[in-house]
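Side project, low priority. Logging it here so it doesn't get lost.
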Amino acid sequence: MDKVLKHLFDSDEAMTLPLAKKLHAEVEDSIYRSWESRRKWLSSAFGVNIAGDKQSQDFNAVIDLRNCIVHGDGRLTDLQVAKNKDFFRIREDLPRILGVGLNGRIVIITPDTPLKAATVSRDFILHFDRAVLNKFSNLSI
């Protein structure tokens, strides 16, 4: 997704203008800071809206699990439990989508989890590629 976003920005006519280059340089880090911001920029700047689609929503569970592993040492992170809405979504999605068990904040990866995560990731990538190519049929990266 980062490679596609970078290419779309680099190939946009507006980027030939000094002001557009300067503004982009000011916000560039924030574009790639989170999956939510990537999707927002894809939608608002390039008209590629995938944020509410099933594949994107399911992929959020993969992102959440990754964050538990990388940032929470196998537990839901403080950030993941800080907002009730996010916490309840994660507690529902991890078991339903990835077959992950939860014991309090502890994440229990089951034997089915890796295949489910790979399938969800593949489905998201295919969906993302289709959405981008529908809008930018000549895109070649």
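Brief comment: The chain has a mean pLDDT of 95.
Revisit when time allows.
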